[in-house]
Amino acid sequence: MIFSAGMRAVGLEIDAQAVRAVELKPGRSGVQLRAAGRCSLPEGAVSAGVVQETDAVADALHQLWSDAGFAVRDVVVGVANQGMFMRSITFPRVPRENLEDALRLQAGEHLPIPLEQLVMDFAVLDEITGEEGEELYELLLVAVRRDQLQRTLDALQHSGLRPVVVDASPLALARNLEQSELAGSIVLADVAGGVTSLLVVSGGQPVFARVSPVGLSSLNGRPGDDDAPAADDREAQESWARELAQEINTSVHYYLTQTYDEVVDALIISGCGSRPDVVPEILEEALEMPVRRLDPLRRLAVVRDDGIDWESDASDFAVSIGLGHRAIEEGAG
Which domains does the chain have, with CATH numbers? Predict the structure, then answer.
């Protein structure tokens, strides 16, 4: 379930290039990073965010847990593919105990495929009054394709891991920021190996998400062993960054046509695809808005040396760290 509470757990991202995981724990001085690691995947094991080879992913997860020394086998796993849908909607304020049943009856009005093909969950963001005085809920509706999710769950089962929370990866990005940083209207984009997860936050609330098939592997030609972007071909990087800018611009334009927001104030990028210096330069020029990289370590009091070059690679773990924060925020620590 996307909004279920979980036990102490490891934040887990399954990407085309690698599986990445982070175990956080609360401490006296703040949230601490207890352990972290990643393990590369063979080409084709994950495509566009969807597990294609269950055994290959399970083997990588088993290796990752062995190498990183995680203390638990419960995971908060992120989902980021084009079979994931997120909508911010208003809904009549029925009694809370009847809300789920009522929402399921009308979910087809908000989702592009039949509900029986989806696993759906929701969260109440606010209680508001409509223009004509009607009492409404403001809801965040999230759904994933049942068949695609099952492949992820099968890989976890085969590796001996227990999913206590299934979360939408775009939502994890916002947990790396303080609430004060989410004012106005901002876009967060995690450029991973296989896909780009995009989240729009307006007034501190997540309101729109999309997963684009443009990831770092479309620059490199195939997944790499260490999340590293092709370093030397600036012309190729510029061309790819402009393609990425077009994808982000299309999503932002669609969002703005559906809401009362007139502009987006800033773009915050993360992921292995955000590393080349040309990426923020091209995005800022093409989108005509401020662009900066996300530092997911800023909310952590202690970061262990796990053989990861955190100075250069921290942004690669933005999703898994955000998923780790989810575990703690749900009382999982």
Answer: 10-82+147-329 (3.30.420.40), 84-145 (3.30.1490.300)
* DSSP-derived 3-state class of residue 154: helix
Give start and end residues of each alpha helix (H) in 15-163.
Answer: 54-68, 96-106, 146-158
Query: What's at 14, amino acid-wise?
Result: I
Place of tokens 């992921």: 271
Asked if the model's pLDDT at residue 271 lies above 60, the reply is: yes
pLDDT value at position 224? 44
Residue 320 phi/psi, 5-degree rounding, is -65, -35
pTM, two decimal places:
0.91
Given a contact cutoff of 8 angstroms between Cβ atoms, the answer to whether 140 and 123 are in contact is yes
Phi, psi of 249 (to 5 degrees): -60, -40
Which long-range contacts does 150-156 make (Cβ < 8 Å, 24+ apart)? 151/50, 151/51, 151/52, 151/54, 152/14, 152/51, 152/77, 152/79, 154/51, 154/54, 155/14, 155/51, 155/54, 155/57, 155/58, 155/61, 156/58, 156/61, 156/75, 156/77
What stretches of the chain show up as alpha helix (H) in DSSP?
54-68, 96-106, 146-158, 169-174, 217-220, 234-258, 278-287, 310-313, 318-329
Q: How big is the chain, counted in residues?
A: 333
Q: Are 142 and 172 in contact (CB under 8 A)?
A: no
pLDDT in tens, 167-202: 999 999 999 998 888 888 999 999 999 999 999 999
